[in-house]
Amino acid sequence: MEKWPLGVFASIDAGLGVHLDVVRELGIPTVHLHAPSRASRTPERAKEFLARLKDLGITITVVFGGFEGESYADIPTTARTVGLVPPATRAARAAEMKEIADFAKILGVDAVALHVGFVPHDTADPLYRGAVEVTREICDHCRGNGQRLHLETGQESPEGLLAFHNDVARDNLFINFDPANMILYGSGEPIAALREVGRFVRSVHCKDATWAANPGHEWGAEVPLGQGDVGMEAFLQTLAEIGYYGPLTIEREIPQEPERQKAEIGAGVKLLQSIKAKLL
Ligand code: MG
Questions:
Q1: 170 CA to centre of ligand 1 in angstroms
Q2: Among 109, 120, 202, 203, which is disulfide-ready with 174 (CB 3.0 to 4.6 Å)?
Q3: How far is the CA of 60 from the centre of ligand 1 (A)?
Q4: Which residues are CB-contacts of 23 (< 8 A; sequence separation ≥ 6)?
Q5: Cα 52 to ligand 1 centre (Å)
Q6: What is the pLDDT of residues 100-158, one digit of tens each?
Q7: Could you give the domains of the chain?
Q8: What separation in Å is there between the alpha carbon of 200 and the centre of ligand 1?
Q9: Global pTM value
Q10: CA of residue 266 to ligand 1 center, whole Å
């Protein structure tokens, strides 16, 4: 298999990603797919969708779950609404995540991923135990499907993420490393964090961001690839160090501006190709 095939975060109905015609136009061979709405998660739709992907020559490498009611408006809102940590929605979202994993299986995809949410730092907090238990439950469901579960990085420090991974104690639990999220959430310097958690990284997002004045209290800013504080060459160099040569999946979360999103992803593709040419 080609080392570091390019990828992009994509959607087929609602969602943050680019549409498949844009993926095709940019000549990108792989996608992380934002799970479609429940109405589209049927075996019939999966079949249609697979035929379309085959026509377009696109492979899905990871399916990402997301849930109604999640808001990334600011850090406190994210903590309150995102993922499997909030108790009020936990059981329903766990059930939905299993449905998403089953849909991914029909699509022939062996990895599903999600933002688990803001896991408390205090391991005695009931929310921490709850997050560990629900993550185990989803891992076990994925195991039955022959799938891995990838935790999106961002809200935890690398040490917190490793401790959580250790407490869940499932061998199909891995990490989707998003360097920009480390900056956006103020949870750690991304290159050092990648080295720390590298042995569990099985997918990545190529995304860039600049630090906030008060990291961890306010958002940093997401910016086009190569214009932020990640350092894309250092990022790829470090991926090589940890032995990761899987897809480089560009994520640019500005679905409200599709023309700009397409142009910036196109520029991101060129940047990654030039770095690949240098490092491979
Ligand atoms: Mg991401």
A1: 22
A2: 202
A3: 16
A4: 8, 10, 31, 56, 58
A5: 25
A6: 999 999 999 999 999 999 999 899 999 999 999 999 999 999 999 999 999 999 889 99
A7: 6-279 (3.20.20.150)
A8: 16
A9: 0.96
A10: 18
Neighbours of ion ligand 1 (CB under 5 A): 178, 205, 251
CA distance 24 to 203: 21
Distance of CA 180 from the midpoint of ligand 1 (Å): 8
C-alpha of residue 47 to centroid of ligand 1, in Å? 27
